[in-house]
Amino acid sequence: MDRPAAGASYQRFPRVRIRELKDDYAKFELRDTDASMANALRRVMIAEVPTVAIDLVEIEANSSVLNDEFIAHRLGLIPLTSAAAMGMRFSRDCDACDGDGSCEYCSVEFHLAARATDSDQTLEVTSNDLRSTDPKVCPVDQARAYQQALGATDPYDTSTAADQRGILIVKLRRGQELRLRAIARKGIGKDHAKWSPAATVTFMYEPDIRINEELMETLTLDEKRSWVESSPTKVFDIDPNTHQVVVVDAEAYTYDDEVIKKADAMGKPGLIEINAKEDSFVFTVETTGAITAYELIMNAITVLRQKLDAVRLQDDDGDLGELGAHLVGG
């Protein structure tokens, strides 16, 4: 199969610049690539980076007001620490077990036992009541509480006392009981949303905003204010000293064209020119806490490289060449 010549327009060497990085939040720039690569990275972060989530629940006793299926669904949506997920096996590919959950390579076992004995107090059963057989895999809020107990406080931690009590599973009244065994397995968001490590992954084209200064100076101060206020977001402002319109936050622009429409309505077409930089993107990433934002980005790059390597192997075997010849011939 013929290779494209060096320097082809779509052969890029992407560059990344981190703007902000916290445990569960990251903002970074992706430059010198195109929208296909940016969107591929976004989709992999959402749907193909593996985590660990509860997948099998065996109810031993349940006298609560919620049925078994409801409780099992709630348990599945509790985020579990998944830093070790990349090294685990998928249960469907594991040859060391029969899928019953008692396997160190592909699963982690949890137990929960709660019974309400106080007649005047409702017992809240939360994720803190889950007991894991593997200390590396536990509910995220348990891990945070443990870190805080050790004094490893995060300066960006905004969790409240209610958050530290854990994720509510069910409430029990006197005499009610819940006992169960749960098996957590490795999976990806493409199979079920409970395995997605991403709460939010978005990217936007970096805007290139150019103000026609000569045309802007023909406006009165009131007209400038009116034009600046036509933008629904705080993109522009007026310098209090020079009374010039300046760009204060280019990335706040939402490509709504309101300022362009306002300029046209004022009889000043060409007052502003806004274009999207087609090779520059700004990513915003938030995680569920199962893995850190840094791990999410790096694991997504690893998964994406594995996919590209698989395509390259198919290419070397001639599969893609045969497909291309078939399409041309058809």
Give a quick precis of the structure.
It is built from nine helices and twelve strands. With 330 residues, the protein is of the alpha+beta class. Mean pLDDT is 88; it is low at 1-10.
Summarize the structure in words.
The protein is of the alpha+beta class and 330 residues long. The protein is 28% helix and 28% strand. The protein contains nine helices and twelve strands. Strands 1-2-12-9 form a four-stranded antiparallel β-sheet. The protein has a four-stranded antiparallel β-sheet with strand order 3-8-4-6, covered by helices on one side. Strand 1 and strand 2 (25-31) form a beta hairpin. The longest helix is centred in the last third of the chain and has 24 residues, at 293-316. It is elongated, with a radius of gyration of 27 Å. The chain starts with 14 loop residues before the first strand and ends with a helix.
List keywords for this structure.
single chain; four-stranded antiparallel beta sheet; alpha+beta; 330 residues; disordered N terminus
Major beta-sheet overview: 4 strands, antiparallel
- Percentage of β-strand residues: 25-35%
Low-confidence stretches: 1-10
The total strand number stands at 12
The helix/strand order is: EEHEHEEEHHEEEHHEEHEHH
Number of alpha- plus pi-helical segments: 9
Helix and strand layout, with pairings?
Layout: E1 15-21, E2 25-31, H1 35-47, E3 51-62, H2 68-76, E4 107-115, E5 123-126, E6 131-132, H3 140-149, H4 161-164, E7 168-172, E8 177-187, E9 198-211, H5 213-216, H6 221-229, E10 236-238, E11 245-247, H7 258-265, E12 272-287, H8 293-316, H9 319-329
Antiparallel strand pairs: 1-2, 2-12, 3-8, 4-6, 4-8, 5-7, 9-12, 10-11
